[in-house]
Amino acid sequence: MMRVLDVGCGDKTECRTIFPKEKITTLDVNPDLKPDIVADITQPLKIDEKFDTVFMSHVIEHIPRLSVVPTLRNISQVLNRQGKLYVITPSLEWAARQIIDNEDLHVSVLASIFGSQDDPWQFHQCGFTIMLLRQAIRMAGMQDMEAYQSSYTIEMESGPIKAQQNIVVGWKVFEDGEERES
Q1: Residues of the chain with pLDDT under 50
Q2: Which of 17, 38, 80, 174 is the least crowded, having the fewest Cβ atoms under 10 Å away?
């Protein structure tokens, strides 16, 4: 059984849908969500357990831009060697196309850029194209093994709206401190 860390677990449903048979440990900065671990991922994580997979869906955009790479390094500390990191974030490419192409801009486009802003945890502090997300993964010392876009639904008061998200899978090839070949 694979060990999965669900970072920014929210209501805990998305990760369980994708990894239904795996042992999932939840982590969130918000204690009201009752995660297994309450922690701020922008700080070094005090977690002894190592995980085969870390799942971060719509989390990294809430981190200050200059803290993204150090945060990804913090996350890689809890990954086993050969472990995978799934990072999913709203697509800036999709949002830019919507802004340029649509005269009647829907509020969901702005929410994908800035967050819903309906509570203190829902403000976006940075954004990513596929290339920027891949670059951040590499700068954090991992390899980017997959990168693609997929559709997702933003639930708005006016009803569901289709949007695009960027997905990059990072791969921890080396242990921390292990020598890398040039």
Answers
A1: 182
A2: 17
